[in-house]
């Protein structure tokens, strides 16, 4: 189980960095303000609390419960959300994953792209200057990880991520 959590955390850092690598909202092509801006100034109305609530609501309504995981460092608390599903408690993880994505889209998240490769699916959605990546990796009968991670695409958050990565490289 330790390896599964480590793999999910490592995937989270990669997804967070790629999510913050662009300061543009894919759906509108407009630059977004940083997380300290009010929702109206940011052009989308999302902040970390709203993004968290939308992910939690969609995932739990779809039948998932949350598995405890380390999440992101405290320095990124305003820039990222990480939610790892406890797939052992889901009757049908694939259907729950599909329902969670549908609920997010119904809530205004726009599907940007989906990558399917060797038993893995990563779906990217955008809303209000944030990028959400939902991942389904493995098979229920062997090993399965399902996560929902969102990151603020602002320049401020990109700097915070780069600073955190620089700290990790020094240690």
Protein model, in words:
- With 171 residues, the chain is an alpha+beta fold.
- 39% of the residues lie in helices and 25% in strands.
- Strands 1-2-6-5-4-3 form a six-stranded antiparallel sheet, sandwiched between helices.
- The longest helix has 19 residues, at 2-20.
- The radius of gyration is 15 Å and the shape is globular.
- It starts with a helix and ends with a helix.
- Mean pLDDT is 79; it is low at 1-43.
Q: Any idea what the shape is? A: globular
State the major sheet.
Answer: 6 strands, antiparallel
Q: Strand content of the residues, in percent?
A: 15-25%
How large, in whole angstroms, is the Cα Rg?
15 Å
Strand sequence of the main sheet, in spatial order? 1-2-6-5-4-3
Mean pLDDT: 79
How many strand segments? Answer: 6
Order of helices and strands: HHHEEHEEEEH
Q: What is the helix content?
A: 25-40%
Judged by helices, strands and strand pairing, the structural class is: alpha+beta
Sequence stretches where pLDDT stays below 50 over 5 or more residues? 1-43
Distance from first to last alpha carbon: 25 Å
Count of alpha and pi helical runs: 5
